[in-house]
Design brief:
alpha/beta; 24 helices; eight-stranded mixed sheet
């Protein structure tokens, strides 16, 4: 009996044993991971042994075959609506038009892939595009045998193990049978797919009825019961495909696949072409088509292809397909943990969201070095803690901001931040509750009196973690009384603040316990910023020089230091400096003159003497808190440029003492953040209700009336 003869890691769920059993003693059932495996009804079993004889692991058409050699790059008239360039659709269409039957995978009534055998052209449309879920062969083996014996022609397509199973079931080849095998990436868990379908239904607020993946074009099409569809990116947008491609969801036997490599069962082998030279053509639709038999060569010559080019599978130019899937897919290191969660019946969101962290700070594409380097530091630090940070690409009223897509800030964000989405309205942010379970707000002045309620997390709802890291009120003044804001603050699981005075504000204002932590930029070392400096050429002035960094016009000649003084913000031509130039110029300077909090932070980081120019109408609480924490003499705080002297700028500073205090505070802050991230999520009271539904691009789809009046922010 098959159950006692084959190990779990060698069963591919092809159902050859099920199809061949004369007493119907075998059924295909889902295991704890959702994959189909044979189960034997011992009361019906006659011990005939046909199930073992028909298992492709024991019996395969591969024996004695020669390695594949003949291959082509082809384009079909079906290329735009298919996966892998449309070669299968072209073959199937030819076969149907010649009076034959085709076998291919469609979604069954349970939204799981299943192979059907048909001669209906309408069914071909359902077979197009990849599905990335391991399905069943159903009764297709039996029906194929019946048709072949009746003299009908059958074109059977499937994964390598399914084709091997078909041949093992049939026992011999048939002249009226032609087989098509895809270059497989392993079978994805149907159980995980079912959880994704439920998740997608909830995410979009309607029922998912069809899904088509075009991996080579980086597109996944989701079709809904109301006739609408949504297009997502394969690499990044779609939660199911992302985990499949990482190798977390794949069947264990696929890691021991005996059906890959240069010896193949099928007459045709089809796949995508990932060679560099085919990049542009891949977007338009191009297939790799391997001819693995005389039968396939004759059929190939009868079809009028839109494009044909010989494909040398031995050429390094055609890597990685020159080895034809010769590398066994390795399991993801988190695969075991993934399936343990799947086994325990966790929700889809809990399975995928554990290590993702959403960061909300001021990462706007404006020329604000401190804000962007802070965002960079937050991502880098959280990565060292074993989490996957994503900086939420949110900024209100972007049209009113002057952005330069070719400017230094925009390029820095694209290169050094892991930006997620594009959000300009609080209503758009609601979908993030489905993607993330951990939200970190800050650092910077996210809680000042006039700040948007977005930064108080009123849009976050459900089971999650809300963390405020180094939040700032800007000043030492108590905010105006706002019961709504207080309730928002009380929902946070852990709160930390950047200024020590803010501890009392949190307690007196909202009855929230807070801890004093270091600014994120000082959580890193000098070496951590070196990759930014090294990413571009930076010309450093010869000789000693000082730098200044302010947000208002300042005449450098008014600074009397006896050496050149350079603007950190603009170069001599008035062009905004890049982030690498900004850091490198400050790093090699002899002194920093600044009116910026983060100007002081980086002066401390690089151990540069500094002078701070007070901002008008500002209590400078954040500067005073920083100075007090590190025992820095306040004599370096001046009211105007006129007060700056060489003696003040180049005063002796005990950097060993300051660095020791920074390190102690840094370690405390790091541990605080790590412990906050490790907390379990808790259910959050809903504060704000959106009136709208949005698609994945944030476009308003419809309006609905709330059950009761919502607070308008």
């Amino acid at each position: 009996m098959i159950e006692g003869k084959i190990q779990k890691d060698l069963c591919f769920g092809c159902a050859a044993c099920f199809s061949v059993c004369p007493s119907n003693a075998i059924t295909m059932v889902e295991d704890e991971q959702g994959f189909l495996v044979p189960r034997v009804d011992y009361a019906k079993c006659t011990n005939c042994g046909l199930c073992v004889k028909s298992c492709p692991v024991y019996k395969s058409k591969r024996d004695g075959l020669k390695p594949i050699e003949l291959a082509y790059a082809v384009k079909s008239k079906y290329s735009q609506g298919c996966a892998s360039g449309g070669a299968f659709a072209e073959l199937a269409s030819y076969w149907l038009n010649s009076g034959g039957y085709i076998a291919g995978t469609v979604w069954n009534e349970h939204f799981i892939p299943e192979t059907i055998v048909t001669n209906d052209n309408n069914d071909l449309e359902k077979m197009k595009c990849s599905k990335y879920v391991q399905g069943g062969t159903g009764n297709s083996y039996k029906k194929t045998l019946q048709l072949l014996k009746a003299g009908e022609k059958v074109l059977y397509s499937g994964t390598p193990c399914q084709i091997a199973g078909l041949y093992a079931f049939l026992g011999s080849d048939f002249d009226n049978l032609c087989t098509v095998e895809i270059l497989c990436h392993a079978g994805g868990s149907p159980k995980f797919w079912k959880k994704y379908v439920d998740f997608a239904n909830k995410k979009y607020g309607k029922k998912l009825v069809d899904c088509k993946v075009q991996n080579s074009k980086n597109k996944i099409f989701l079709y809904f019961d109301d006739g609408t569809k949504s297009v997502e990116s394969v690499y990044g947008d779609n939660e199911y495909i992302m985990h499949y491609l990482l190798g977390k969801t794949k069947r264990s036997s696929c890691m021991n696949c005996p059906f890959m490599g240069r010896i193949r069962n099928a007459d045709f082998i089809i796949g995508d072409i990932w060679a560099k030279w085919a990049k542009k053509m891949r977007k338009d639709g191009i297939s790799l088509l391997i001819l693995n038999s005389d039968k396939s060569r004759k059929i190939f010559e009868k079809i009028k292809w839109d494009y044909i080019q010989p494909f040398d599978i031995n050429s390094p130019k055609n890597s990685p397909l020159n080895k034809i899937n010769d590398n066994i897919p390795l399991p993801h290191p988190d695969r075991e943990d993934f399936f343990n969660k799947l086994k325990s019946d966790c929700d889809f969101e809990d399975i995928i969201s554990d290590k993702k962290v959403a960061l909300l700070n001021f990462n706007y594409p404006r020329d604000n070095y401190g804000a962007l380097l802070l965002a960079y530091a937050m991502e880098k630090v959280i990565k060292t803690m074993g989490y996957k940070p994503y900086t939420i690409n949110y900024y209100k009223n972007p049209i009113t901001m002057e952005f330069d897509p070719q400017g230094a800030t925009w390029k820095f964000r694209e290169k050094f931040l892991t930006l997620y989405g594009f959000y300009t309205d609080k209503n758009n942010l609601f979908k993030l509750n489905s993607y993330f379970k951990t939200f970190v707000f800050g650092s910077d002045v996210i809680w000042k009196q006039t700040r948007d309620y977005v930064y108080f997390a009123d849009w976050c709802t459900g089971n999650n973690k809300l963390i405020a890291y180094a939040a700032s009120f800007l000043s030492n003044c108590m905010p105006k009384n706002d019961s709504y804001k207080k309730q928002c603050m009380q929902r946070f699981d852990k709160v930390s603040v950047r200024e020590k005075s803010a501890i009392d504000i949190c307690k007196k204002y909202a009855n929230v316990e807070a801890q004093h932590v270091i600014d994120p930029t000082l959580l890193l070392n000098q070496e951590d910023y070196q990759e930014i400096i090294d990413s571009e050429y930076s010309d450093i002035p010869k000789g000693d020089y000082a730098v200044y960094y302010t947000f208002w016009k300042l005449n450098p000649y008014d600074i009397k230091l006896g050496l050149p003084v350079y603007n950190l913000f603009k170069d001599t031509y008035g062009k905004t400096r890049t982030f690498g130039q900004w850091l490198n110029l400050l790093k090699h300077s002899k002194c920093v003159i600044t009116a910026s909090f983060h100007g002081i932070c980086f002066a401390l980081l690089y151990n540069k003497p500094f002078v701070y120019i007070k901002k008008p109408h500002d209590d400078n609480e954040r500067i005073l808190s920083l100075f007090n924490k590190f025992s820095i003499n306040q004599e370096c705080i001046v009211n105007s440029v006129d007060e700056i002297t060489g003696e003040l700028a180049f005063r002796d500073i005990n950097w060993d003492e300051i660095n020791a205090k920074i390190l102690e505070f840094k370690n405390y802050s790091y541990n605080w953040l790590k412990s906050a991230l490790d907390l379990p999520p808790t259910n959050k009271k809903t504060m704000y209700k959106t009136h709208y539904k949005f698609n994945v691009l944030g476009i308003k789809l419809s309006m609905k009336r709330p059950a009761k009046k919502s607070r308008e922010i």
